[in-house]
Design goal:
Elements: H1 2-10, H2 13-49, E1 51-56, E2 59-64, E3 92-95, E4 100-111, E5 116-121, E6 132-135, H3 144-147, E7 153-159, E8 169-170, E9 175-179, H4 187-202, E10 210-214, H5 218-223, H6 225-231, E11 237-238, E12 245-253, H7 273-283, E13 311-316, H8 326-335, E14 339-344, H9 349-357, E15 361-365, E16 381-386, H10 392-405, E17 409-414, H11 431-434, H12 436-440, H13 444-452, H14 461-474
Parallel strand pairs: 5-7, 8-12, 9-10, 9-12, 10-11, 13-14, 13-15, 15-16, 16-17
Antiparallel strand pairs: 1-2, 3-4, 4-5, 4-12, 6-7
Length: 477
């Protein structure tokens, strides 16, 4: 009361008000200054409490951030699980829509025989209750059939001084651990589950990275040697039965992956699917960047494409979903002005990539062979023949959308029931012919056994001819 009385006598009411505002502003400045000074410590306290719940193979695991693992997640301590879908992560263990992966730096020890990765932290580090994680390093985690074939790896954080394997072989470069199991043997899955994810994960290292392969298939390594040697300057390490302890300055366990098939989101990653196609051209020394541009009638007779014919590749298949009248299709195409060739995907990857790259139009029934669109020159045309059975959704997401993102032109041809060989196997009133969705409700395996494994295609030439004519028109644009 005495203080208030003296204050009131010393200053007018207006001066008291001015002084009050001044005191408030002064206090605010002091508080902001203190926040600025102690901000690093406040952040650390927040990091101590922050936990990301990562679902790996239906097992809930907790990942403590910066405070517990300074080498695991020092640049992502304030990022929530939701943000992992849109932000590029530098370090940590992450669960995304189609993949789980860890990328860590520091004293990393890899023991292949036990499928273990040890992250050695300082002795003073306070480890969380759960300091280990499990990952199957194949980028299709939502597919139980594929993942059950993939070996599980454990990632364990251990303190320096604890009992853990000692280094028997030192490496000066980081490693990428991935599996060549899952759906290996299917060309589509090899690209969408491994090759493109491997490009996304390892391209940043500019060749200074070691590929550590689990469930290694030598034939697969040989098949993709041109790509692997372009991404890594070092020999691939077959790790499964290796009893050595390999020490690396960093490791990626598992592969990054964009959820959509044969696609890359340039907003999320540093690369686009067009960058990947450019990388393939370098890897296989592909000559053509652009497809032929046909001249219009009346254009200069000296036009450089005057004597050139658009080249059409008809993909044949030995087993199911093959054309039963391939020769007739090729003859019709030639009569329309195409240089038509018929070839089955397979054999030398380099040779086949160069054949595809030499073509302006690729024609094939829906299947893994269409994955070879990655080698087509820009502005080339993909014609996807869609079999009977309600394949439209697969055709769209597997090849239509990816081809457009690649800078290709797209056409599809949906066959009639009469063009399917299923009509020779079942009566016209059978549900397989009459109502495919009812078969789809019985499950993927049943759908697959009928429409993918029992069906071939005989194109009705007069019905298909306009589609080839449209392809010619697109090559004029």
């Amino acid at each position: 009361m005495m203080y208030n009385s003296i204050f009131a006598k010393s200053f007018s009411r207006y001066e008291q008000k001015k002084l009050g505002y001044g005191a408030f502003v002064g206090c605010l400045i002091i508080v902001l200054s203190l926040c600025r000074v102690f901000k690093p410590y406040i952040g650390s306290i927040h990091d101590l409490k922050l936990k990301l719940y990562v679902s790996i193979d239906t097992k809930m695991l907790m990942l403590n951030e910066t405070s517990s693992f300074p080498q695991i997640a020092r640049e992502t301590s304030s990022i929530t699980v939701e943000e992992t879908e849109t932000k590029k992560m530098e370090q940590g263990c992450f669960s995304e829509e189609r993949t789980n992966f860890c990328q860590v730096q520091g004293d990393i020890r890899v023991h292949g025989k036990s499928s273990s990765v040890y992250i050695v932290t300082p002795e003073t580090t306070i480890l969380p209750e759960n300091s280990s994680w499990t990952i199957r390093p194949y980028a299709r985690k939502d597919d139980a059939e594929a993942m059950r074939r993939v070996r599980e790896w454990s990632i364990k954080a251990v303190k320096d001084g604890m009992k853990f394997p000692q280094c028997t072989q030192h490496h000066s470069i980081p490693a990428v651990i991935f599996s060549t199991s899952g759906y290996i043997g299917n060309h589509f899955h090899e690209f969408t589950d491994i090759i493109i994810p491997l490009f996304l994960t390892s391209r940043q290292f500019n060749g200074q990275v070691k590929f550590v392969v689990s469930e290694m298939r030598p034939w697969w390594i040989s098949k993709y040697q041109a790509i692997l040697s372009k991404l890594s300057n070092y020999e691939v390490l077959n790790i499964d039965k290796d009893d050595k302890v390999h020490c690396f300055p960093g490791v990626n366990v598992g592969l990054k992956r964009y959820p959509k098939e044969l696609s890359i989101d340039p907003q999320k990653y540093s690369y686009s699917i067009k960058d990947f196609r450019s990388f393939l051209r370098d890897s296989y020394s592909l000559k053509r960047v652009h497809a032929i541009k046909l001249r219009e009638e009346g254009e200069d007779e000296n036009n450089k494409n005057k004597k050139q014919q658009p080249r059409l590749l008809i993909l044949s298949r030995r087993r199911t979903r093959s054309f039963t009248n391939t020769a007739e299709i090729a003859n019709m195409a030639r009569s329309m002005g195409f240089e038509a060739i018929v070839m089955e995907a397979g054999g030398s990857m380099s040779n086949f990539a160069n054949v595809v790259n030499s073509c302006d139009v690729l024609l094939g029934v829906h299947g893994a062979g269409l994955t070879n669109i990655v080698f087509l020159p820009e502005n080339a045309v993909l014609i996807q023949v869609v079999p009977h059975g309600g394949f439209e959704w697969l055709a769209k997401y597997d090849f239509e959308l990816p081809s457009k993102n690649m800078g290709l032109k797209y056409l599809d041809y949906k066959i009639s029931v009469e063009e399917s060989t299923l009509i020779q196997q079942y009566p016209q009133d059978h549900m397989i012919i009459k109502h495919p969705p009812s078969i789809g409700k019985l499950g993927w395996e049943r759908f697959k056994s009928v429409y993918l494994e029992q069906q071939n295609v005989m194109l009705e030439l007069n019905r298909f001819r306009p589609t080839l004519q449209k392809a010619l028109e697109l090559l004029h644009q």
